[in-house]
Amino acid sequence: MQVKPNELSYKQLRKEFDLSKIEWETTEELLKPDEVIGQDRAIRAIEFGLNIQSPGYNIYVAGMSDTGRTSIVKNILRKVAGEKKLPSDWCYVNNFEMPDQPLAISLPPKRGKIFKKDMDELIHILKKEIPKAFRSDDYKERREVLLKESENEKKTILSQIEQKSKEKGFKIIRTPFGFTTVPVKENGSPLKEKEYQSLAQEEKERIENDMVIIQKEIAQVFEKINELDKKSRDTLNSFNREVVKFVVERYIKVLEQKYTEHSLILKYLGLVAKDMVENMEDFLKEETSTSQVRLPITEENLFTRYAVNLIVDNSQTKGAPVVIESNPTYGNIFGRIERKVQFGVFMTDFTKIKSGALQRANGGYLVLNVERVFMYPFVWDTLKRALQEQQIKIEDISEQYGFVSTSTLKPEPLPLDVKVIMIGRNFIFNLLHYYDEDFKKIFKVRADFDWEIKSDNNTVFQCAKFLCKLCNEEKLKHFDKSGFLAILEYSTRLTENQGKLSLLFGRIADVAREANYQAQKNNSRYITKKDVEEALEEKEYRSNIIKNKIEDMIAEDTLYIDTEGAKNGQINGLSVYAYGEYIFGRPSRITAQTFMGNKGVINIEREAKLSGKTHDKGVLILSGYLGGKYGVKTPLSISATLTFEQSYSFVEGDSASTAELFAILSSLSELPIKQAIAVTGSVNQRGEIQPIGGVNEKIEGFFDTCKIKGLTAEHGVIIPKSNANNLMLKKEVVEAVKEGKFHIYPISSVDEGMEILTDVPAGERGADSLFPEGTINRKVEDKLFFLLREQEKLRKLAEKEAEK
Which residues pair with 160 in a beta bridge? Predict the structure, then answer.
């Protein structure tokens, strides 16, 4: 008795859109969308995270790429940030007391640039005014008076010692080595050596004693002269300092009046004035100063200690800053301290401090890609610490390794007030949530982006408006109704659900761009259905080289695939392969052998370590089904092997478990399976067929194989009934089904599938707990009883042999 299988109509194989009620003819007539399509949950979460002011409510935006996560976040931030107040400017200045710890100064927005300019102008003016003061006539006159007073004191002391020496009969003579005394005669001329030797001994002793006394007094006089010189220098230096102080304070007071409300700036200006007075020689172009010794440096570097390093300038910002850092290295996020080589040595100062994205986003929003954050060392840990401590430290990255090769700066930390939005995939969020205790404390808001939306008139219209916006922004040709229809069909296929439309607008936009290219080649005014279909065909052709190579091997019988006849324990299963973004299906021969034993179902792929955990689970479920179906009264005694023939790569997933079960049942019942029909689907222990993914690609993969082998009216695919709504097949397949050359059989149970594959009724247990004669299940059960009896005979025979 042949079983007539249930079959899907060609009308059920793809979603057909009715655009007859649409009033517009092209997307050119539409307005751009006024709202984000299908992401209400994500938008509400983002808006909540942006507006709540409590700490730790940073946002993790999760979802698939191409859903428009980044562009939507940008648009929301642009709107929210525009309504926020402008944050402060920040600058670093020299710490005159501790130069290795620069001071941070906050100024109202747009005032940082003014303060920097004021300090630059101050230095520029003082570099002229201080030397000018020292060249003034008044200064010269007062300096001359101070020097003259000192000289007069020295002359008086010298004249006194000279007079005293004269009275004693000596004359003071200046030599290249200092001063010396010589005895003189009454006429004042020096006493010669011969004359000295001719004197009486008593006279010579008197002269020598007087000379000793005079020389001691001369030494004392010159000590006084040295003291007078030092006093003169100190007086002159003090006078010079007063001159500099007068000039500096005159201009500093102007700035102090301008910044009276900024206590830190007032304190800083006081320190600047003090340092300028102490280092007045720099303004007089001296190479050294009285306060410290420096290596030879340029005039420009002499005055960098008075500069203002403006690291955050919000003068051009409107509202709160929004910083999107696409290259989140340590330095780009947290700032860095640069160095330059000077006289063979790496030198740095506070003007070499550079801001990072975190400083620029302070008071606003920072957007990061989570995967890029984890590409660079120390970025994640430092970001967490900054958010927890609510302050930004600019540190040398070498400190993170626990050593610093050279002395470095330790700038004062800045207070941090920022919302961080990280964009990434769902599985990264889950990993961080489970394995990083800090993550859940600082990223309390998760914004999930959906990848599909219910298909109705409103969403269809919103998709059309999206295309209108894309065409206007990128200057593409607009779509007519037929072109838009093709886009809707592509969108539906992306979701694998006839009742949904895809929210992967990145992929849809790519197809629109490629269709625009085809329209230009075809000289079309608008993008038509033909242009979209050609774009999709070209897109597939660019990526399908592997698929074509496999088809060539099937055509050449290098890969064994039977598409006609019937065989025991052999079936065509269907697999999905991914080659980048391109996904395609292909048939695989699955075979089963059953024989006496008690090892159950043996998965050869697993034994060869070519099987994944999900596939292993699917195979183990088969034993559960066989035991529950046929081992109710007697135990099963069977060994069965399963394998994917000519498969040398890793096998994963349970979508072949139904085909594997059919192969086992065919082997047990000795009923051949039609090779013209391929099978996909997952099965549970109760024999219910469960839905699988990639159903369109699998059907099309077998259809292409059948075309290679020669398409007949016998070819078809068995799929889970629950996958019927996921069909969005190519029109070529739909036409073949319409013409009766190909068939799609939806099933919900194992028995349905076996009946289609063998044309034999499955059979139900009767009142006697037996399956009807001639049915599939009766044949399977009989074979299992036979194997059990034969094994029992062998066991008894072995026992008898053992007794002998």
Answer: none
Mean pLDDT is lowest, of 312-316, 418-422, 426-430, 788-792, for: 788-792
pLDDT at 219: 73
pLDDT at 179 over 70: no
**From the CB of residue 560, how many other CB atoms can be counted at a distance below 10 Å?**
12
pLDDT, one tens digit per residue, over 584-619 is 999 999 999 998 888 888 777 777 777 888 888 888
List the one residue out of 803, 185, 178, 73 whose CA is nearest residue 419.
Answer: 73
The identity of residue 564, as a single letter, is: E
Residue 230 has pLDDT above 90, yes or no: no
Angle at 508 between CA 505 and CA 512, to 5 degrees: 130
In eight-state DSSP terms, residue 411 is P
Calculate helix-pair angle for 505-521, 481-495, nearest 10 degrees. Answer: 140
Q: Which of 631, 697, 698 is CA-nearest to residue 658?
A: 698
Structural tokens at position 740 = 């009766």
Pairing between β-strand 677-679 and β-strand 570-579 as defined by DSSP bridges: parallel
The pLDDT of 627-632, averaged and rounded, is: 86
Secondary structure of residue 3 in the 3-state scheme: coil
With beta carbons less than 8 A apart as the criterion, state whether 726 and 732 touch. no
pLDDT at 396: 80
Amino acid identity, position 243: V
Q: What pLDDT score does 229 carry?
A: 73
Cβ distance 102 to 93 under 8 Å? yes
Contacts (Cβ under 8 Å, ≥6 apart) of 279: 289, 290, 291
What is the full DSSP assignment across 101-112?
SPEEEEE-TT-H
> Is a pLDDT exceeding 60 seen at residue 320?
yes
SS3 18: coil
Question: Which has the higher per-residue pLDDT, 173 or 281?
Answer: 281
Which carries the bigger pLDDT value, residue 101 or residue 790?
A: 101
509 and 491 Cβ atoms separated by less than 8 Å: no
Dist. CA 112–CA 89, nearest whole Å: 5
Residue 575 gets which letter from DSSP? E
Check: CB of residue 563 under 8 Å from CB of residue 715.
Answer: yes
The angle at the Cα of 628, spanning 598 to 600, to the nearest 5 degrees, equals 20
Task: Tell me the two tokens of residue 651.
Answer: 């096998």
CB 775 within 8 A of CB 36: no
Name the helix (H) or strand (E) containing 128.
helix 112-134
